[in-house]
Amino acid sequence: MWQEFKDFILRGNVLDLAVAVVIGAAFSKIVTALVENIIMPSIALIFGNTDFTSEWAYRGITYGVFIQAIIDFLIIAAAIFVFIKAVNLLTRNRFVEEAAEDEQTVLLREIRDALKKEDANS
Known about the structure:
There is one protein chain. The chain is an all-alpha fold. It has a single domain (1-120), classed as Non-ribosomal Peptide Synthetase Peptidyl Carrier Protein, Chain A, CATH 1.10.1200. Helices cover 83% and strands 0% of the residues. It is built from four helices and no strands. Helix 2 crosses helix 3 (63-99). The longest helix is centred in the middle third of the chain and has 37 residues, at 63-99. It is elongated, with a radius of gyration of 27 Å. It starts with a helix and ends with a helix. 0% of the residues are buried. It comes from Salinicoccus roseus.
């Protein structure tokens, strides 16, 4: 049983997941700082107060907290979307260069095709 547990923990998927959780937590701080310190103050300049938590309540039911959570989620999701699009745009060129075939691969492919032609003709 101990060996199965070690195999489970040391499996690549578990380690990848652990790294993803740690990176996600760190990235969450970046996105939260972006939303709280840049995006929300910019929205406040345009629309005025953006805090619905204390203003929107009815007989003790603070539905403003729920509305604020929805707004925060949408803004955070949009910020992550834009960030991921920017990262993909910046890294796309690197992957295109890495995907380009080297000269040896092209030469070997030409030799293979020439040998196939020669076999077909004989």
